[in-house]
């Protein structure tokens, strides 16, 4: 196995599943103890990532929010991110792919419009409950219940970085090695509990991997607001 970047912290290469997302969040919170306090914001990638984010925020006494950025998928390969759209509609393209995809490329315009519509739908659902948090000068921890390609997480990081957080941290229960290295170019620290040698899908690393719907995300955000 290659040596990981110095800002990547992998706890193990175990394949043992987590009981559920709450357990994964609690274990991550222990590794994030140094970020405790109200100057920290925990962002969950909807939908399953919000369960993990809630637990981390509870344990750290941090603010909880949802990240609504969306990846721009490549033609014929939607899991490969060529860029992202932020919650405010601003688009970011991967500069490494600028020779193939420009802002005025018909495909990019169509894909951006499609993702903006999904962001608008989620804003209508989530932001009436929880206004977007202010990131500037704060530590922002972005989490999910796990990643496969990492494209959605990269979109979240690209978006969060534009709001000038003091520190940007990725915290994941489980992931393959390669996406972590890509994230380390954007985030100040990447923490992953388990990087198994054979990775098929996130769900294989949970005994309970029940689907999470929009209503559950709204409920989590509402509860976090009520506890302020």
Q: How would you explain this protein's 3D organization?
A:
With 228 residues, the chain is an alpha/beta fold. The protein folds into two domains: 8-69 and 133-226, Rossmann fold (3-Layer(aba) Sandwich), CATH 3.40.50.2020; 71-125, PRTase-like (Ybab, Chain: A). Helices cover 33% and strands 22% of the residues. It has helices spanning 21-31, 49-60, 106-126, 151-161, 177-183, 214-226; strands at residues 8-12, 40-44, 63-66, 70-74, 77-85, 91-93, 139-143, 167-174, 189-194. The strands form two sheets. A six-stranded parallel β-sheet has the order 1-9-8-7-2-3, with helices on both faces. Strands 4-5-6 form a three-stranded antiparallel β-sheet. α4 links the parallel β7 (139-143) and β8 (167-174). α1 crosses α2 (49-60). The chain is globular and about 45 Å long. The mean pLDDT is 91.
SSE diagram, text form:
Elements: E1 8-12, H1 21-31, E2 40-44, H2 49-60, E3 63-66, E4 70-74, E5 77-85, E6 91-93, H3 106-126, E7 139-143, H4 151-161, E8 167-174, H5 177-183, E9 189-194, H6 214-226
Parallel strand pairs: 1-9, 2-3, 2-7, 7-8, 8-9
Antiparallel strand pairs: 4-5, 5-6
Helix pairs in contact: 1-2
